Amino acid sequence: MKILVTGGLGFIGSHTVVELQNEGFDVVVIDDLSNSSIEVLSGIEAITGKKPDFEQIDLRDKTAVQDFFEKYSDVSGIIHFAASKAVGESVENPLLYYENNIGSLVYLLQGLQAKPESHFIFSSSCTVYGQAEKMPITESAPIQAAMSPYGNTKQIGEEIIQDVAKVTGINSILLRYFNPVGAHESVNIGELPKGTPQNLVPFITQTAIGLREQLSVFGSDYPTPDGTCIRDYIHVVDLAKAHVTALKRLINKENKDKVEIFNLGTGKGSSVLEVINAFEKVSGQKLNYKIVDKRPGDITEAYADTERANNVLGWKAELSLEEALASAWKWEQKIRS
Fold this sequence. Notes:
By secondary structure, the chain is an alpha/beta fold. The chain contains 11 helices and 14 strands.
C-alpha cells in the first residue's frame, strides 16, 4: 500500500516515515524544503535501509498537486503534516498561515476524494482547545476560540475534514498532539529548525551548545506552581508510532466513525523551568536563561487525558521526558560536530 506523507522530511514527518517503512509500507514524501533539508532522506535510508520516493512540491500549487495524483494514482492514504506551525509567527503573518495550512489541505482532499475508499490522517494540535477549562484535556473538551491564527487553521482543518468525510469515501483520524520533542535513537534524524527555533527544546539545545547566547523564558507569573507555562512533552518516536497505529486502524476498518479524534500526549504536564532542570540533569550542561515578557498567543497550561488513545486506539507513550531530552542533546551535538 502506497502512503503519501506530506512534510515527510520535517521533524515529526521524517520519524513517521521511518516507522511506516519499518512496518512495510511503501512511502512517497512531499516536502517543499522550506523548513527541512533534503539530507533527511539519507537519514531515513540509514535507519530503514530504504529511501522513500520524494517529490519537492509546494502544496499551495494546485496544478502541481493534481499532477502528483496523476503520477501516483496508487496512493490510497495520506498522513498530512505539511503546514506552517509557529504560534508567534502566525500572529505576525496570519495570511501566510491561512494560505499554506488551509489551501494545501483542500487540494490534497480533492486529490483523494476521487478514490472509492481512502485514508487520511491529519496532524492536528492541542491548540484547538485554546485554554481548556479543565486539566487533563479530554477529546470532548469544548473547542475554544483559537488564541492564534495557527490554532485557528487546525480548527478549520478539522471542520473541513468532517464535512468532506460525510460525502466521500475518505475515512479520517484527527490526531491532536501536544508538544513533540526528542530525536531518533540512531541520531540520524531529529529536529532541524531553520533560523531561530520557535519551540522550547531546540532553543535549549542550541543554547547549551553555544549557538544561542541565552534562552528566553516567556513569563514567570502564570498561575502555575513555578509561574511558567505547562505543556505535555511527548517523545517524537512515540508520536510517530501513533500515526502508524492510526493508519492501520483505518486500513483494518476498526474505526467506529468516518472521522475519529485522539489526543496524543503523555498525560503529564511539565513547566518550562522543569524542562530546563531536566535537561541540565541529563546533559550535565548549565543553561543560561532569562525571564522575559509573555508571548501573545501562549496559553497557561495544556496536558492530555490519554485514556481514549490508550484504550480505543491501542497506543501509549512509552518514552520519558528525560529520554527525549537526552536524545535531543545527542542530536544537537551530532549536527554541530
